[in-house]
Amino acid sequence: MVPLTADDLEKLDQSDRLRSVRDQFELSPDVVYLDGNSLGPLPKATPARLEKAIRQEWGKDLINSWNKHNWVSLPLTIGAKLAKLVGAGPDEVACCDSVSVNLYKVLSAALELRPDRMTILTEESNFPTDTYIIQGLMRQLGNHHTLRFCDPTSLEHPGSSHQLDDSVAVVLLSHVNYVSGRLLDMAAVTSNAYRAGALTIWDTAHSAGALPVDLGASGADFAVGCGYKYLNGGPGAPGWVYVARQHQAGAQQPLSGWFGHAAPFDFERNFRPAEGIRNQLCGTPPILSMIALEVGVDLACQVPMKHVRDKSNALIRVFLQLTDERLASHGFSVASPRDPSICGSQVCLRHSNGYPIMQALVAHKVIGDFRSPDILRFGFCPLYTCFVDVWRAVEVLCDVMVNKEWDQPEFHKKKAVT
Amino acid sequence: MVPLTADDLEKLDQSDRLRSVRDQFELSPDVVYLDGNSLGPLPKATPARLEKAIRQEWGKDLINSWNKHNWVSLPLTIGAKLAKLVGAGPDEVACCDSVSVNLYKVLSAALELRPDRMTILTEESNFPTDTYIIQGLMRQLGNHHTLRFCDPTSLEHPGSSHQLDDSVAVVLLSHVNYVSGRLLDMAAVTSNAYRAGALTIWDTAHSAGALPVDLGASGADFAVGCGYKYLNGGPGAPGWVYVARQHQAGAQQPLSGWFGHAAPFDFERNFRPAEGIRNQLCGTPPILSMIALEVGVDLACQVPMKHVRDKSNALIRVFLQLTDERLASHGFSVASPRDPSICGSQVCLRHSNGYPIMQALVAHKVIGDFRSPDILRFGFCPLYTCFVDVWRAVEVLCDVMVNKEWDQPEFHKKKAVT
């Protein structure tokens, strides 16, 4: 293969049909931001929208904004927009709470739907909060359930997994693994779980907004997702929750706060769950954070997810080629799948000095992140990542290695948040 | 008693030591805002602070803000500030999630601490979400617990309540009732519950920020509170949760998300609760809403709660006198306590045409709210309510009655949010 040049990457940018989308983000041209899988950047439309929400809606219209600006419906109106991105019906998604809280809700509801099955099947390398939430609920329910870890890829092949026995109530998996980047075949796993009588809960935090997700066609029972990564909804943006239509009446989640009541403003004495997805709501939603999320969702909805995925694959292809050509000799190896059909929108490189190398990169404004013990993680978010960004990231990484820059003491210091 | 005049109220404003605090709020001079117990108004400092958070912290510093701007500690740093307002130690309060979610956490933890007691004692006229959360948890745990309603004032007198039998695990009460405005004697109830072996959970949504709350001196076990009412933290601002120091190690809440882990960024496989109040956290906090809350908390912290309470009592005293002098003849009666020592920072008037009367008032920019079936609710928030506001509210209310303005069809229309 002919080595890639900066010219090649500029040409790829010129023919990129998503090129103009980058202009919708506040991203300094001197930054290469490859950490949108941790915190998406600021859409240019967000400050003005929030300014209006703060000064006009809160400041001037005050309490009346719950009606006048329809704050009260935001969890469902944003949910209905987001539904299009993940193959759900507009009545199957609500935006609310955090990913963790939403996982807790649907896991509790799902276990109730399978009262005779006591196993929760998941993967050991889940984003930890997923496992923590399972453990917290199990403990609360008296530790009658069993948490079983498996290789989730074994669930992709019909009949090939002994894990899916008739004790399995719920299969809870990440659609894309947050470290390895491995993308699971959601339809295949869901269908195998279904045949085994188990329900599925999909954590799409590292897939929704970065690649096509089709919860409906996959037959997924429940899903949750994140607002602050690929949806660019702002730091700690509310998450979202999906409950397939057929489970909405039967699956009652335990956090039965007033926003999930059939008639919240009638102030009835007893809880009556709302019909439909609204029964996933609990308390009063954080409106400012919801409005920032809506801007991010609107932006993502402009672009066909297929185009996003195609560009993501292309960005990763050139990054992998450049890694092979220029980084392998510095001790980097590829830890994420090379096959684009099973890889999310990120690449992980392994290096024994990964932590200080990433700090040195960040000092040069090439921003990825580090995951213990030795993973440098790079997210390629096609809405704002250019092909020349990939070139620059590799150039800087080469410099950091050649000059041994990473070996400065400041880059070894541990930060609170990595 | 000599009837009050506009002059009298102007004089009260002139000698009001909190008078200048109103200048710190964006409140149009033509609005009389008596609904801060539902949504506090916008502090003037909030837009600039949020602009910085949005453009600089999120927009420019991106993911690094978790460290650089200490986003990661916001739940505890805001909690420590807020602790001063409610008589708690700086290590006993965390800001996070919603009131409803926080109630769920502490109720689940409290029930675990009293495994042999199966009764939850509360009041029927709680803000409904409190009862809904109890019901949701009871159902989830298999309906082994009993929900018992009582007159909470009966718990204020030692030995006078047969409600506090040895089946009572938890007493969950509102410090100030959201409709009646009745303020309970927290110390007395807590002490009586303690003697009966029960734990207390206080919902301070309608007291904290409006009057002195002393969780520590009262011996309260758990408490929750609201960010968007008297703390002026913005619509749907995160709530807060208090766990008395002695329960922090023993009481494990079930929503064990990664922010409550001992080492969240070590990405360990198994959940290990953080020591101290941080184990009340669950998912990633909504930073923009948190930052708005911090401005509100900072503002409230400037002013001694005793001054706030004194002014609140004075505002209510003149409103009650004017009600007697000018409104009683129009069919209004006082539904909140007349004794200031047992009344929160609100007054409720009862009128059979309460709903359209309140809509007519709002049309004249005198903003209170209505609670079914016949309560007009007026919050007197001493940080920004002037004595002349009280005069104007009564004037407008008189006009609305004299001219039968409330009987226009538009004022009878039901709104989604009341």
Automatic annotation (TrEMBL), chains A, B:
It comes from the Eukaryota. Pfam families: KYNU_C. Pyridoxal 5'-phosphate binds at residues 100, 174, 203, 206, 228, 258, 284. GO terms for cellular component: cytoplasm. Keywords: Cytoplasm, Hydrolase, Pyridine nucleotide biosynthesis, Pyridoxal phosphate. GO terms for molecular function: kynureninase activity; pyridoxal phosphate binding. Pathway: Cofactor biosynthesis; NAD(+) biosynthesis; quinolinate from L-kynurenine: step 2/3; Amino-acid degradation; L-kynurenine degradation; L-alanine and anthranilate from L-kynurenine: step 1/1. Its cofactor is pyridoxal 5'-phosphate. It catalyses: 3-hydroxy-L-kynurenine + H2O = 3-hydroxyanthranilate + L-alanine + H(+); L-kynurenine + H2O = anthranilate + L-alanine + H(+). GO terms for biological process: 'de novo' NAD+ biosynthetic process from L-tryptophan; anthranilate metabolic process; L-kynurenine catabolic process; L-tryptophan catabolic process to kynurenine; quinolinate biosynthetic process. The modification N6-(pyridoxal phosphate)lysine is found at residue 229. It is found in: Cytoplasm. Its EC number is 3.7.1.3. Catalyzes the cleavage of L-kynurenine (L-Kyn) and L-3-hydroxykynurenine (L-3OHKyn) into anthranilic acid (AA) and 3-hydroxyanthranilic acid (3-OHAA), respectively. Belongs to the kynureninase family. Homodimer. This is Kynureninase. It comes from Apatococcus lobatus.
